Each structure stands twice: as C-alpha cells, then as structure tokens.
Amino acid sequence: FSCEWAAAHFRFRRPHSDLAYALEAGKRGMRAILMAIQAHIITYLLFTRDTKYTGLERLCQIGQQEQGQALAVALAETLWAAGGSSRAVVCLITTAVTVLPPGGCRADTFTERVSV
C-alpha cells in the first residue's frame, strides 16, 4: 500500500444538509473507488432504505447514523460483488500490533496492525 492509500478514508458531508448523501473526495488516489461506493450509497438511499421521504428528499434528510448505515451497505455490496457473490474477506486496522514481521522484513506500522 502506498502512503496515499494508508491515509485514505470515507467521509460524508454534513448530516441533514443538501449534500448529506455525498462523500467528500480527497486529493488522494482513491477517487475511482470513492465514486463506485458513492453510486451504491445513492442507490441504497433512493431505492432500498425505508423512509417517509420521497424523491430527492431521500438523499438530503439523513443523519449521521443513516450515513453510516448507507456506507456499510455500500461497502458490503461492493466487497460481495468483488468476491463473485460467493465470499468476501475484510481486513481491519487495529490500534494494537497483531503480527510481527518475519525475519528479513521491515515493519511498516501498517501491515502489523491488520486483522483478518
């Protein structure tokens, strides 16, 4: 992973704003992935989520909890599709070191914190 990928993140715009559904696009190298996830978020908010709002209100009338739910669904759908709809492997970054580098390898402070 490059430094750009290590620093990458998903961040929504302000909840209950006109762009509450939108992810902020950083200047880092993950814009293509961000756009794919954004498409899944919009699809979920418009067509899947159960809400009293209709039309474009479905995109704007969302709070922080709904943003998190939409992101979780979008990531799950994307990972499931990438695994051919048969499996998905998720790696989480922990604060504690989970594995030590084998002999001859240098620690990069990123890989050592991955938990599968």
From TrEMBL:
- The EC code for this enzyme is 3.4.19.12
Query: What superkingdom does the record give?
Result: Eukaryota
Q: Where is the Deubiquitinating enzyme MINDY-3/4 conserved domain?
A: 1-115
Could you list this entry's UniProt keywords, alphabetically sorted.
Hydrolase, Protease, Thiol protease, Ubl conjugation pathway
What's a GO biological-process term for it?
protein K48-linked deubiquitination
Keyword RNA-binding tagged: no
Give the catalytic activity: Thiol-dependent hydrolysis of ester, thioester, amide, peptide and isopeptide bonds formed by the C-terminal Gly of ubiquitin (a 76-residue protein attached to proteins as an intracellular targeting signal)
Q: Does the keyword Electron transport apply?
A: no
Pfam families recorded: MINDY-3_4_CD
Family matches, as InterPro entries: MINDY-3/4_CD, MINY3/4
A molecular function (GO) term: cysteine-type deubiquitinase activity
The family note in this entry says: Belongs to the MINDY deubiquitinase family. FAM188 subfamily.
Q: Describe its function.
A: Hydrolase that can remove 'Lys-48'-linked conjugated ubiquitin from proteins.
Name of the featured protein: Ubiquitin carboxyl-terminal hydrolase MINDY
- Which gene specifies this protein's sequence? Mindy4b
